[in-house]
Amino acid sequence: MRHITDVYRALFSIRIAELLQYRVALVIWLIEVALGPIISIVIWSAVARARGGTVDGYTSATFAAYFLIAMLVNYFTQTWVFWEFEWRVREGTFSPLLLRPVHPIHGDIAQNIAYKLLMLTVIIPVSILIAIVFHPVFHLTWLAAIAFVFALLQAFVLRFAVEWALALLTFWSTRVDVLNQLYIVVLMLLSGQLVPLAFFPQPVQIAATVLPFRWMVAFPVELCLGSVAPGEILPGLAAQSAWLLLSIIILIVMWRTGIRRYSAVGA
To answer: Is 182 helix (H, G, I), strand (E, B) or coil?
Structure first.
């Protein structure tokens, strides 16, 4: 444990120093994180007003709450390793990582958390500004608030494990851009980032629930909004935990199988 702590302390220092070299990129990432939800709030609020104030039970204030929380949950859970992994393998920068005394996944975890810590200094003021402008309304109970914390932590680990496993497909094909794009489209639709899942037909809602996507974003958001019935909270957390365990198992199997196929490429 002490060894892992020392490793992460060193990795955090390195990753934060690296990220600070790209301040403009941090601003661009912030715009990417915040702009989509702001546009969604404006559009759906206009739709609600045009329909007499509500759309399937969502008012302008509820839409503001939904997309604000969705922005924060997506910020907390998002990763980008499946985009970088292909480049590492193609350019030959992955091989040196295998020579280090720690698993390469630890570097990606440290980078992800370092990015979130740096962005926290701006994401909080942006969230406050959105709340002041759009007046979101929440219906959060103490039980849902406690469940939200656990669901958010599980959503982070679940999404990281799924997307790291997706990145490992590079061991079988060094060109996985199409698969990555397809994953992003499905994630945007079935995780509730574009619109609440309640707006979709029943078969789509079932697919989002059976697959891991709802548990990555929509479930924590629904908990925060108070739209999950008390009797559905524990089953929801259990389903999320089951997908979390399964994703970790898949990740381990893919790593052990794929690393045997890996051959260095690049300069």
So the answer is: helix
Tens-digit pLDDT string for the chain (267 aa): 556 676 667 666 766 666 666 666 666 666 777 788 888 999 998 988 888 888 888 899 999 999 999 999 998 998 888 888 888 888 888 888 888 778 888 888 888 888 888 778 778 888 998 999 999 988 888 899 999 999 999 999 999 999 999 999 988 887 788 888 999 999 999 999 989 999 999 999 999 999 999 999 999 999 999 889 999 999 999 999 999 999 999 999 999 998 888 776 655
Burial state string for 165-179 with b = 16 or more CB within 10 A and e = fewer than 16: bbbbbbbeeeebeee
CA distance 212 to 240: 8
* Dihedral angle computed from the Cα positions of residues 235, 237, 238 and 240, in that order, rounded to the nearest 10 degrees: 120
Alpha carbon distance 226, 93 (integer Å): 46
- Joined together, the tokens standing for residue 202 give 């029943």
Distance of CA 3 to the CA centre of its chain: 28
Alpha-carbon span 70 to 83, nearest angstrom: 22
Tell if the pTM clears 0.85, that is, is over it.
yes
Q: Which candidate, 238, 202, 200, 197, places its Cα nearest to that of 66? A: 197
C-alpha to C-alpha distances, 62 to 37, 59, 142, nearest whole angstrom: 13, 5, 19
